Amino acid sequence: MARPATCRRRVTLLLVLVCAVCLTLVVRRRAFDAELAMQGREWRVFAAGVHAEEAPKPGGGRGLLVIGGGHYTLDALLTIAALRFVGCKLPVELWHDHDARLLGAAGTKVAAAIGASAGVTLRDSYELPGGSEVRGYQLKSHAMVNTAFEEVLYIDADNVAVSDPTPLFSTPSYVATGAVFWPDYRSYNPLNPMWQVVGRAPVPSMEMESGQMLVHRGRHRVPLALADYFNQRGPSYYYRFVHGDKDLFRFAWLALAAPFTMVATAVGSVGYVAPDGGFCGHSMLQYHPDKPSEAVFAHRNLRKWSAFPVDDVARWGAIKRGRLTVSEPASMPRVTPSAQCSCGSGHEPRHHCLDLDTPVDGSPASQGTLRKLAAIEQRLLRLRPQLVGTGASAGGLQPSWWVAWAASLASGAKL
Question: Fewest beta carbons less than 10 Å away: which of 164, 188, 319, 413?
Answer without folding.
Answer: 413
